[in-house]
Amino acid sequence: MIVPSVALAYCRPKMMKRIIHFMGQCQVEELLFYRPFLSDKSYEKSSLYTEAEVKESYSLGLSQIRQTESNLRVSFHTHLKPFLEDLVLSRFSADNILIAEPDAKPFQPAGAMQPPLELLVFGPERGFTDKELKLFEKHQVPMNSFGDMHLRLESAIPFIFGQIKALSSTK
Question: What one-character-per-residue DSSP string does 19-32 give?
């Protein structure tokens, strides 16, 4: 397992299905979905965004690595601010959270991997709004860039997981 929990902004259901499948292959233990400030609200109304559908897509990823048992925890949240302030910061130390943000400072493995990473947060494809970025700064949650390319979410996630895996295995 590369990271135990991943938070994802609601996005196009077709793309999210592939992302969830990948999360199964990486044996992520918890998926947290949230709606960013600017979002297409129809995405979260999709039938994919139900616990049963998420677990089914996740199981397909698990089966690809010849695993059958899943203890995946899934939760859905309607707004970023209460999600961050009431749930995330009450469960995770800011030092154990990493926000993937292309325009942030470059990822520094020593600072981000010690203490161990517990939650990786991915924003919407259009990027976080200034209001969202200020919210993260206010709570001193580190934002890191993994390069200057603005990748689609479905490409960025495997790329970032690979970077974290490579950096954590060199220690």
Answer: HHHHHHHTT-SEEE
